Amino acid sequence: MEPTLQDIRDAAARIAPFTHRTPVLTCATLDGMTGAQLFFKCENLQKVGAFKMRGASNAIAQLEPRLAAHGVATHSSGNHGAALALAARLMGVKAHVVMPDNAAAIKKQAVAGYGADITWCKPTMASRDEHLAAVVQRTGATIVHPYNDERIIAGQGTAALELLDEIPGLDVLMTPVGGGGLISGCAIAAKSLQAKIRVFGVEPEGADDARRSVAAGALVPPMSPASIADGLLAPLGEKTFAIIRRYVDDITVVSETAIAHAMRTIWERMKIVVEPSSAVTLAAILEGKVDIRGRRCGIILSGGNVDLDRLPWLAE
Amino acid sequence: MEPTLQDIRDAAARIAPFTHRTPVLTCATLDGMTGAQLFFKCENLQKVGAFKMRGASNAIAQLEPRLAAHGVATHSSGNHGAALALAARLMGVKAHVVMPDNAAAIKKQAVAGYGADITWCKPTMASRDEHLAAVVQRTGATIVHPYNDERIIAGQGTAALELLDEIPGLDVLMTPVGGGGLISGCAIAAKSLQAKIRVFGVEPEGADDARRSVAAGALVPPMSPASIADGLLAPLGEKTFAIIRRYVDDITVVSETAIAHAMRTIWERMKIVVEPSSAVTLAAILEGKVDIRGRRCGIILSGGNVDLDRLPWLAE
Question: Do residues B198 and B289 both lie within one domain?
């Protein structure tokens, strides 16, 4: 069952002890550059540095005790693994995370630092699935999918719930699109609260399965997705795709150059650290892919986990 | 006359239309690393990316109209020039900024972007003073000193006023020390509101005139100050020194290595961009120079203006 606004409200109450209510920042310079009023919901300042903490907390908090006793499990090279690890620890639940052995050192440290039990696998989907199945068989842990799960979708939607509660009268809401958990939950919240708000998703040109799926009217699996926005490479799931078709007004794509430029612009002008995935929305605005002139536009900045030794503008 | 708590409250009301009420962020990981509860007042997220916007706004807002008509002037290679330029523009006042021709490109762009009239000088104090005098003679502008001025001191104190209003029961307040405007205003606010709070200042080893002045009981001018914390090179003024002697409990110094490490730690863990000057307080805590274990400690992060092409950890 597709989550409702009430599910998202319930999630907000449930996750409040385990998450930050993140600030909404504005920037007069960016308003001047875009001719709009931008309101940035800073999920890079969320615990574990990403909105993923919302969904993970909401999923674990609803586990029946007899299941929670066996822990939770997932495979992840990114923010979902860290979020599941921390949310589990805060609730006294064991977390098992299957990680590819080539994952970024900073991600390995984060997941280990949050006390998860890590199983290393090869960097292929087959190896991930195989190792995860073995972990589940051994431990009885409950698998928590990173996005194709109603509890996760409802949890991510709390970001939009908070934003719309704090900033009234938004005309537009924009989020990045990876597997679709964030935009699904946020679109349900936004359209339920303000029927006339327009919801736009943005993805990298090199990982544009959401745009192609919407155009085709059926899930189109991505063909070797690639982008510096490494949080946006996952394919849509069936549940997130159904919600996107129903609630999202348009999906836009942006170039790698535009993502790197927008990311640097956010660092320089807003003084916050965002990862490339967070910058796709501003990239779309600065590239003129969406017209928000004169509008009040909410933007979800999804995360801030980035290797400070390897910044896109120092790539040479 | 030394500013009073009432002066700082008046300043807060006066500057509200021209400044952000900046967020206070916490970080569970840093609390764990330090054994304390840290509350970071994020002046890097202030307009122009620095607390300087507070003092500049407070000074210009109090100019008599017959003076304001001739504009304001200062010399600055840093954040005060940008703050004066923007605050002046927001109040419809002309700003004249004397800048050394070797100032960082990002600072030049900022001051120019805020619409100030820029006069280039050589990078010596004599050349700065000479050009500033010429500007004043030509225009009749009022000089606004970056820190040795009661209106500036009261304006900077509003950062502590907001922090203590939002976070009750702080045991300690820490700020960086450059010319002393920030710590002076914040110490008056903090000690007036909570007599038992301890106020600590931190400066770089290579620019430790505040520590030496306090020890000597008289202003000791700095000898060729040098540090990556380029916002902390200015010498104390007579007014700020008098307030520091009266209200500040201790001045601590930190090494360049500790500053760079603390700066990177803030970026990685808190996902915010701070300049080296902002990181001296956390550096002192992580180096064990101040003992705040078990305490609730407020920290003013002073600014976030940094050249993203030249980060200390990429210096090789």
Answer: yes
